[in-house]
Amino acid sequence: MTSAGDVEPPAALAEASFFLAFFRETAAIAEVELKKLFRDPTELFSRAVQPVLWLVIFGQVFSNVHGIPTGKVSYLAFMTPGILAQSVLFTAIFYGIAVIWERDLGIIHKLLVSPAHRSSLVIGKAASAGFRGAVQTLIIYLIALALHISINWNPLAIAGVLFAVALGSAVFSTFSLIIACIVKSRERFMGIGQVLTMPLFFASSAIYPLTMMPRWLRGVAFLNPLTYLVDALHGIMIQGGQSVHPLLVDLGVMTINLPSTGIRRSQVVSHACPIGTPLLDYRTMM
């Protein structure tokens, strides 16, 4: 007769082995994505142009408008977290276009027939998107330093900003990957991305407070995950900044969205990129 003590150690060992293998698979996917980024970092520098324009031009001009209730902080300080969230959104939402390219080249098919778990493919790409968000955070901090914006330089606050940005990047990148697995061309993906990014941005508190919005727009902002990322950054990034919701609520809403989009993407990728799908032969295009 086998005792319970004889059964539990092998079961615990198998569970630990599963999580270790899952971590290795996720790290491998993230490493591949980061290598592609380091080989061609021009995307990060090109993405830095837009925040500079928003803060240096738009922010400087609208700082003279006194009808925007920003509390105890200047308008430029108020919009800085919003521009950071915008940079995270714009970078992550177009992240899925690389998946369409990989699908056409057959890379996704090779990953699907590998023994790696589907969820590790999703989380690995989301982790690399979080690193891109961290780079955007560094750029925004440098711009804010040059413009003498009252940033909260407390190490815990900076760590909180990096965590919120990484979480937001993961949410929007997995959402982008869902779209990439559904659409059939890069042109259609670009069109859908443009349609989604601007409404998400303007239906949030990125450049104006929620109190200025009409009631129907506040309802839309309540359902917008970008609103909670901006709100979290308002409370921890700026000295004297205030958030509408507690920090745990903001992070909790984004955390809830992350597994739902990640699980959905791991389900969609199997149907959108089935094994045996004809691949695009680029030799015919030469």
Give a short summary of the structure.
This protein is an all-alpha fold and about 290 residues long. The chain has one domain.
Instruction: Give average pLDDT, whole number.
Output: 78
- pLDDT < 50 runs, ≥5 residues: 275-286
Number of strands: 0
Shape: globular
The overall number of domains is 1
Name the helix and strand elements from N-terminus to C-terminus, one letter apiece. HHHHHHHHHHHH
Helix content: over 70%
Largest β-sheet summary: none
Alpha-carbon Rg, integer: 21 Å
Distance between the termini: 69 Å
The DSSP helix count reads 12
SS strand fraction: under 5%
Structural class: mainly alpha
List the helices and strands and how they pair.
Blueprint: H1 4-39, H2 42-47, H3 49-62, H4 75-93, H5 97-105, H6 107-112, H7 118-146, H8 155-182, H9 186-202, H10 215-223, H11 225-237, H12 247-272
Helix pairs in contact: 1-7, 3-4, 4-7, 4-8, 4-11, 5-8, 7-8, 7-12, 8-11, 8-12, 11-12
Architecture overview:
The protein is an all-alpha fold and 286 residues long. It has one domain (15-64, 72-275). 74% of the residues lie in helices and 0% in strands. Helix 8 (155-182) packs parallel to helix 12.
Keywords:
disordered C terminus; 74% helix; mainly alpha; 12 helices; 286 residues; single chain
